[in-house]
Amino acid sequence: MPWKIVRVRVPGGKASPTPPLGPTISQYGLDVGEVVNEINELTRDYDGLEVTVEIYVDPVTKEYRIDVRSPTTTSLLLRLAGASAPSGDPANKKVGDLKLEDVIKVAILKKNDLNAKSLKAAVKTILSSAATIGLTVNGKEPREVIKDVSSGIFDNVLLKYEDEWKRR
Predict the structure, then answer these.
(1) Same domain, 113 and 155
(2) 8 A C-beta contact, residue 76 and residue 12
């Protein structure tokens, strides 16, 4: 018998056994508390954001696997900048400012979705996204920060997050 897929949207780190999640899980004979705890552990880094969770269930053996789809880069950046929406005119209208550390955290969270082989490359990708939605970083245009990252000015900051990057 083929695996069944259950897709639910849950608040990061705060899934609960209430409907629709609990009843859906229990109909496959899974331990609801165990599955909810595992979902919360896997989504704790997305606190305050809605994430899509896919639960693959074998109804016969009761085996399951959980995959978490990370929020979009845009939603992560806007949340960290305290902005509600991207700028319609990013060259002339800025909607918020980020710290470089925020950009690094987004790069780490999005590691599995990026084609970057290094934290430095991932940070430059996220900086490009920030530029397209009208955000500044440390009060500067993201393209200027990309040049600073490329030249090594922030290597000491990136080094602090290198272990976390490798663990993901």
Answers:
(1) yes
(2) no
Contact 51, 13 (CB under 8 A): no
Give per-residue pLDDT as tens, 18-28.
988 999 899 99
Number of domains in the chain: 2
| Domain that includes residue 20, residue range | 4-69
Q: How far apart are CA 1 and CA 24, in angstroms?
A: 18
> Do 110 and 64 reside in the same domain of the chain?
no
Peptide bond into 20 cis (omega under 30): yes
Indicate whether this model's pTM tops 0.70. Answer: yes
CA atoms of 150 and 140, how far apart (whole Å):
15
DSSP conformation letters of 41-101 = HHHGGGBTSEEEEEEEE-TTT--EEEEEEPPPHHHHHHHHHT-SS--SSTTT---EEE-HH
Instruction: Kindly tell me if the per-residue pLDDT of 70 is higher than 90.
Output: no
The 10s digit of each residue's pLDDT in 39-68 is 999 999 888 788 899 999 998 999 999 999
